[in-house]
Amino acid sequence: MKDLLGLTGLGINLPITDPTWIFFLVLVIILFAPIIMGKLRIPHIIGMILAGVVVGEYGFNILERDSSFELFGKVGLLYIMFLAGLEMDMDDFKKNQTKGLVFGFWTFVIPMALGIVTSMWLLGYSLVTSVLLASMYASHTLIAYPIISRYGLARIRSVSITIGGTAVTVLLALAVLAVIGGMYKEETVGSLYWVLLVVKVLALGALIVIGMPRLCRWFFRKYDDSVMQFVFVLSMVFLGAGLMELVGMEGILGAFMAGLVINRYVPHVSPLMNRLEFVGNALFIPYFLIGVGMIIDVRCLFTEGEALKVAVVMTVVATLSKWLAAWITQKSFKMKKSECNLIFGLSNAQAAATLAAVLIGHGIILPNGERLLNDDVLNGTVVMILFTCIISSVVTERAAKRIVAEEHDGETDTDKKKNDKENFMISVANPETIEGLVNMALTIKHPKHKKELVALSVINDNNTSEAKEMMSKRNLEKTSIIAAAADTAVRTVLRYDMNIAQGIIHTARENDITDIIIGLHRKTNILDSFFGTMTENLLSGTHRQVMIAKLLVPVNTLRRIIVAVPKQAEFEAGFSKWVVQMCRMGKILGCRVYFYASEQTLAYLKRIIDREGANTFSMYSVLEDWEDLLLLTSQMAYDHLFVIVSARKGSISYQQSFDQLPSQISRYFSNNSLLMIYPDRWGDPEEILSFSEPRRPVGPTAYDTVINNLYKWFKKE
After folding, report:
1. I need a labelling partner for 261 at 20 to 30 A (CA). Which of 10, 314, 484, 510 fits?
2. Whose CA is closest to 46, among 33, 59, 31?
């Protein structure tokens, strides 16, 4: 083999043991396997596994599966489960938790039943061996999950159902493994052993669910360094996994729970999420897949006797049982065929818990000297892993493409126009507020909207200096870095104008901006107004939506959004727009949105949210008199975002009490994060009132009649 590869003359002995060359070859595989598989239109995951087969002990024996593969492989496995919990749409997960439990029940019971029957009837194994073998069919690994992430489908219903079912079936399968493993322990403690195991698992679960969120909230508020936040999240993942192993369970459950807990502190569109996905998909997960391929002995397929029979039975039973579970789930909840295929594809792959079960079973020696799981089962397991991973990858890839195509076909022209029209601009002046404003924009904008953000810094022509110009350039550069870390394109604009407000207005018109986000003005003297002259000029000079933000805590640590809505706000042109944006923010941050408004306005709010399917976390309370706004101080906490929907003078919803807002905010809400929204003043009124009968006359006013008469008179002249 050495002469065939031509490595003897180079002084290279196989397998390669030098860490430098091992890491180099692994990186070459990670680099070229997707390229080659892409040419053949085969999922990239299969390329990683097949590459592991080729370079492993049972292939050309180029690399030895040393401790580095065990370390990075385990990290990759934990990373897959962590990302599955981290990227889950908790809103959708809670809404579909019953469906997830049902799927988890079927995907455990059906493989167990088929596995026990076929193992005893076709393979002639004992009851205990058959139960352990069936538990291997019941568990599965989300090895095809990176495909879901690549297509942006991590937050759809079928994925949430599959992940919830995965947690159920893996937990039950590991419980079976723990029971059978405990039966053959030298020191058996009887029923007390199992009682203690259950108590320890429940206590650890409560510790992770209760303690870890508080620790995350404290850390993210205190430290904003990107490297420290990344390392902290990784440490939480392995802390959860290590504690779960400490009590006798598999670490994948702890990693999955850590992902669920940290979910709301790492928004789906954020620099931290982008870093976590990048590192996992670029290094840890490929390392795990290559390591899985290195343990597969393809020669088992060509051997005669019991090993081939066991491999065929195991592969067929595992695949058939998972398909039946997905099919029953589809019929039970009237889901689409593409959703059924996606559930089956994700849940068919066998790797993590299956390997743990077969290695433990193979290591148990029975009183008669035989192994609980013999060599035929061990070889059959690695063959089953190969075929189920291939089937899982192919089916998931095709189902994901189909679902994306269905979503594209189902998107109406109106929806496409809305998404195309959304264009955000951030005005940056204070370097301390840039990160908060960028993160605010990322949580508000549509996640599928790929149009670049516009970052603007305006320099007053009347007060120009090189120092201010350099500061503006640094602010724009910092904005680009923060947005690029979230994989979001930003176009920076440095503008010279008569004043800052005119610079913002002109840039917004030139770039067709629909939403302007600025930081709250800081008073420079006693005579200065609350919002500042610049903000007041901006509001009077543009009819586009303007959002003024003051953030005292990082966006990802907000626990609640409280929105105060004035009377008749539903008749503003931008009403529907900001409602959907606030619900979108609550969904991404995983926090509840509380709307306070009059009964009539609340009715419109509910209709919009129900129509858009915006958020099931929305809560509604009556606020009849806008002057009762001060009553909300009892509902506010330091980590809540207080959103005030205001209006420009002359708007339908404008009230005289708005003039008191600055003093009220300064006096009663100075210790709260704040977002002031001035909705659009122009748009299509039919879009706002299409879901309900108008309760306000929309005919021509006296003002319109006078203008029309003057126009006709001048036209005659």
Report:
1. 484
2. 33
Structural tokens at position 425: 């601009």
- Residue 371, classed as helix, strand or coil, is strand
C-alpha 629/C-alpha 595 separation (Å) is 12
Residues 691-711: pLDDT tens digits? 433 334 334 444 444 445 544
Q: How far apart (Å, rounded) are the C-alpha atoms in residues 110 and 320?
A: 9
Strand, coil or helix: 156: coil
Angle at Cα 63 formed by Cα 57 and Cα 69, nearest 5°?
A: 95
Other beta carbons less than 10 A from residue 559's beta carbon = 17
CB-based burial label for 524 (10 Å; 0-12, 13-18, 19+): exposed
Distances (CA, A) of 151 to 439, 448, 451: 23, 11, 18
Residue among 493, 494, 489 at smallest CA distance from 452:
489
SS3 510: helix
For the full predicted model, state whether its pTM sits above 0.90.
Answer: no
Sequence-distant (≥ 6) Cβ neighbours of residue 211 within 8 angstroms: none
CB of 257 closer than 8 Å to CB of 166: no
Residue 191 to residue 19: CA distance in whole angstroms = 47
Relative orientation angle of helices 434-444 and 466-485, to the nearest 10 degrees: 40
What span, in angstroms and rounded, lies between the C-alpha atoms of 689 and 615?
A: 21
Three-state SS at 128: helix
Number of H helices, E strands in the chain: 28, 10
Q: Which spans in 349-495 are helix H?
A: 352-363, 375-410, 413-421, 434-444, 466-485
